[in-house]
Amino acid sequence: MTEGKNRRRGRRVLADAELGRALDLLDQRRAPYAELLARIVGETLARFPPLPDRPIVEIGAGRGQLRAWLPRVLAGRTIHTDPSRPALRALRARAPDAVTRLAKAHALPFSAGACAAVVGLCVFDAVGDENAAVAEAARVLAPGGRFVHFLDMATLLETPFAKLATSGLVPIPNVLGDPADTEWPLDILLLDRGGLTELLDFARSVGHPLAATFGPYFALHLAGRVDVDEATKVFKQIASSGQARHALMSALVSASRLALEAGHPAPKILPFHSGQYLKSVLDTSFTESGAFEIELSDIVAASLWKPSAEAAGIHYRSLCVGHQRILGALPGRLLTSTARTPNEGLPGGTLVEAGVFVFVARRQ
């Protein structure tokens, strides 16, 4: 019994440490955009205000990033819930006056109709059972109360990858174009499994590096039973490495060209927006619940000009639903309609933009 408890405790310690490292990376990535992200949160809650005289509940509060962006008057009314004790301890260290509760999104410690709003940041893709979370939000919200969810980072990929495993489609990072060329970052491409298998067989037959270099990754998705966790891990490793992305792009393009010349069809490629996938989950689950009216489900963007305090040559940076761009010149497509010349007095400044997927549903 004691040995089993020790093993479980050890697993929890490792999981908490991993969560801490992930949250540290998120904090670092958000830092240059914090002012804009706080603006988007504040303006959204001003446009869709919580009911008066009732508590606001945050689900999946983590270490308090959303609290830091809440307008002060709303932060004072908010009760922060999370299933992780270490996360809530970190939140209280960051905000000693914060009120916290240990709870999961589908089992909130509030009576029916007690809450003015339920809010969350990058949490709905991690709730596990979205229908149970929606039902619980409906239970605790008073009529007219709102569910407000913000997504400024990329979604977790395990759930969509598990569904793709049964679809005959294999995901790769978008290495064939700029993910920011579309409104929703096009971060994933889907390859037809049959066409991909034929292409890999051809690559092996001619000694092309596509099979040797990336065959092990594709094998994870082509196996009879897909190890979703391992496949997701390797996908992230490729996506986060410029060298690996370039190698995949070069190998895929050259192998496809050779295959076409030899009379083999290239695999079909379909776009997949991970952020838009979460949108579809939210839209569907809240609509089908019958308890909510969706008021907003779209990307909301904001921008500002800053003096160039960064490395020389950087004049544009943006973060949109997890996709970051850092460029030496303004891109052809901006997130906002901001003028393309700096404000007077900021020659050579840096344009900073942020895009957040905002979902708002009103309890009927």
Describe it for me?
The chain is α/β, with parallel strands linked by helices and 364 residues long. It folds into 3 domains: 2-155 and 275-300 and 358-363, Vaccinia Virus protein VP39 (Rossmann fold, 3-Layer(aba) Sandwich); 188-272, no CATH class; 303-355, no CATH class. Helices cover 43% and strands 23% of the residues. The chain contains 12 helices and 12 strands. Strands 1, 2, 3, 4, 5, 9, 10, 11 and 12 form a 9-stranded mixed β-sheet that branches. A 3-stranded antiparallel β-sheet has the order 6-7-8. Helix 6 packs across helix 12 (274-289), helix 8 packs antiparallel against helix 9 and helix 9 (209-222) packs across helix 11.
Compact summary:
This protein is α/β, with parallel strands linked by helices and about 375 residues long. The protein is about 45% helix and about 25% strand.
Low-confidence stretches: none
Tell me, rounded to a whole number, the average pLDDT: 91
- State the total count of DSSP E strands: 12
> Helix segment count?
12
Which fold name fills CATH's third level, the topology of the largest domain?
Rossmann fold
Query: How would you sum up the major sheet?
Result: 9 strands, mixed
Radius of gyration: 23 Å
SSE run: HHEHHEHEEHEHEEHHHHEHEEEE
